[in-house]
Amino acid sequence: MTTEVRVPTLGESVTEATVATWFKKPGDAVAVDEMLCELETDKVTVEVPAPAAGVMGEIIAEEGATVGVDALLATISEGAAAAPAAKAAKADDKPAKAGKADSVAVMVPSLGESVSEATVSTWFKKVGDTVAQDEMLCELETDKVSVEVPSPAAGVLAEIVAPEGTTVDAAAKLAVISASGAAAPAAKPQAPAAAPAPAASGKDIEDAPAAKKAMAEAGISRDAVTGTGRDGRIMKDDVQKAIAAGTSAAPASAPAPATAPRAPVPADDAAREERVKMTRLRQTIARRLKDAQNTAAMLTTYNEVDMSATMDLRKEYKDIFEKKHGVKLGFMSFFVKACCHALREVPEVNAEIDGTDVVYKNFVHMGVAVGTPSGLVVPVVRDADQMGFAAIEKKIAELGVRARDGKLSMAEMQGGSFTISNGGVYGSLMSSPILNPPQSGILGMHKIQDRPVAINGQVVIRPMMYLALSYDHRIVDGKGAVTFLVRVKEALEDPRRLLMDL
């Protein structure tokens, strides 16, 4: 019996995807729900599980192919044909160890939604070491989070299948533990087995993702850290040691670039370069932003807002607000409410183009751009127009934490109808935000800065913020864009208008 593997639902307004990676090849044994391949859309990465157990048949859509929803990807042969392959797979999972049958495989744990592979960053144990059940064996790094792998049983670490630096998929075997401890002698032949692991050379060494994150957060240069990983790879522990030592320069690691032989004089600049492969998240961000520029007739209009009234209101009620609702009263809830108010008057800013149709949304699913160590993500506050200040603040806080921890689900980043991006938290005074397709509008917030302004013929100092609305000029006219910004400005300069629905 043959089972078809087809493209799953890709989410709202997503009609096609690219086959990024096949984890199985024809003839491989597969289990139900085992990951077969990974698809990339202009929004997220989608994993395709096996709908049935059996043997991988024909792969219809090769890596790099563009496929639509419900397109045929591959076939799986079920039934008797799968039995020999399954047995072979099990035999492979249990290496022969001096006639013992007590070996326990250490497998890659769940990496989270839409994460299909990881890099083995650090082994805390070496072959021959005694381990206790649930003791940490190694750490894996993905482009979103770090994952610690506990020991599934007590015994002796008999074999390391995936050394540090190895990229493993979601169903890979990492190591083997001998529950009885009798397999400890296998440690000696294992040592040379780790050597053939793919070695990085020269400046192409990629540091552990957790290390890069830690360096970015601490504001230290890569040259200030001495790498102890394979081939000088910088690990998270190396960064922590450098921080603890108060290192600010890089005497220890500075000579490293000299390992790349270069001709003298200007050519030695190349030796000081560092090449790091873009994460899939970063590649997706780059592709989507460029697609937005190529597709939409994007235009930006600006205004400025006096934040005095909003700041005074927040100052007056923030303590009572936090005491009652258990969350701090920030500025984002004011901006979300002001935008929802303005979108009701200018609905085309909350709409999208679908072919030759304009789809107007009778709801506001507000995207809130969040910067993370892995890149910019846009979780969505659904039905923001139906929520109060406290509910908005709680939801934004929750999504922000999940975004920074790399735990956002695909559903939490889909379906937004309008986006707010706050560059002011990084000190930006003015910018032109790029649309988040297929949305037709995005509001850029900026730094609140005291500036002299003229009020009633007098020059006074007020806390001012520049606002920027980027919009798709194909469906939003200049009048609508200006009206939207003016309504946001009015609501923030007199927050009582929000209560009175004015």
UniProtKB/TrEMBL annotation:
Ranges of residues in domain Lipoyl-binding: 2-77, 103-178
- Keyword Acyltransferase appears in the UniProt entry: yes
Q: Where is the composition biased (Low complexity)?
A: 185-200, 245-268
Keyword Acyltransferase in the entry? The reply is yes
Cofactor(s) required, per the database record: (R)-lipoate
Region of interest (Disordered), ranges: 185-217, 245-273
Q: Which family does it belong to?
A: Belongs to the 2-oxoacid dehydrogenase family.
Q: What is this protein called?
A: Dihydrolipoyllysine-residue succinyltransferase component of 2-oxoglutarate dehydrogenase complex
Organism equals Seohaeicola saemankumensis
Q: Which gene encodes it?
A: odhB
